[in-house]
């Protein structure tokens, strides 16, 4: 069967593929350490699980409104007010089956064939594919290590054309862990307002920041910016709820309405039980996030030290999310490999450490390590990486 043109160039998610390969090797008896995970290694907090059980027992197991139950949208509006000083009405919020599906839905309602979306690299793997699936064109601008993997205003201005519909800002970033400052966001926002470009602000790692500076949403910086931004967030990363599939988007009512209409014909609604679990997650007074954040911070500090101690490896210190994104180009070259992809493959073969090559994120000199795994395993993988580098010198 000849499949549709739109899937001919679609590539499977490399991050999911590397996790699957590591699991497969493990299953066949190899002592593999997988550092590809894009999800917290903690269990969903018990109070959330109890809320889900209660929802089931109370019969909350039926279809819900396509954009999510009103109680949850009101609770998300409250979260926006408390965390970001943003006022959204429930009709300006859509709850979806994960933030991934919220983004997918936005591109579907926003883009006509040939419309451009500016995508800073390194980027999260699903953005380019989702843009292309909607008929759009990802216009990649390379955020360099020298500018901490953040785009400059010159780069942004130069990339904007008559066809530019939107720009994606993902802060804290997957894969780099970098966080834009308020000043940087203001400067980007000014250009977008001037040129009429929609800002897609993916804030899924909002709660995982390890510096003193709090998270800033670009939408909170002025009423005009709020009108020009769709914010994406969810419970996957901040409440260890990746499998529950609850994310959301908040933005101008006309965009959210179109997204909700589309959702009504695709998912119908996100899982009812998960919606009530997410409601409980946010409504709890004693938020569990701080405990998780502290554990991540300790791992980041140690892992960053171990990495910068390896010959040929340099690594900016990330400020958020749960990834480090070292540059291994020199190590790969000194080890006799023609590129970092090959180096990553050999590392998995020889030392059974699974990393995600930076080429998956548009940055072929780097690799992504997730520290959503125990400190013991991180230490062991750092030892193996160093041994691999030294063995191949
Ligand atoms: C940058 C970024 N955005 C969005 C998502 C989607 O998260 P979910 O669909 O689990 O809400 C992820 C998950 O890996 C991510 O890393």
Radius of gyration: 21 Å
Order of adjacent strands in the largest pleated sheet: 2-8-7-6-5-3-4
- Residue fraction in strands: 5-15%
Estimated structural class? alpha/beta
Q: Could you give a short account of the major beta sheet?
A: 7 strands, mixed
Question: Spans with pLDDT under 50 lasting ≥5 residues?
Answer: none
Number of helices: 14
Structural shape: globular
Q: What is the residue-averaged pLDDT?
A: 96
Ligands bound here? pyridoxal-5'-phosphate
* Count of β-strands: 12
- Cα distance spanning the termini: 49 Å
Order of helices and strands: HEHHEHEHEHEHEHEEHHHEHHEEEH
Question: Can you give a write-up of this model?
Answer:
It contains 14 helices and 12 strands. The chain is α/β, with parallel strands linked by helices and 393 residues long. The strands form 3 sheets. The chain has a 7-stranded mixed beta sheet, with helices on both faces. A 3-stranded antiparallel beta sheet has the order 9-12-11. The protein starts with 13 loop residues before the first helix and ends with a helix. The model has no long low-confidence stretch (mean pLDDT 96). The site of pyridoxal-5'-phosphate has 13 residues, from α4.
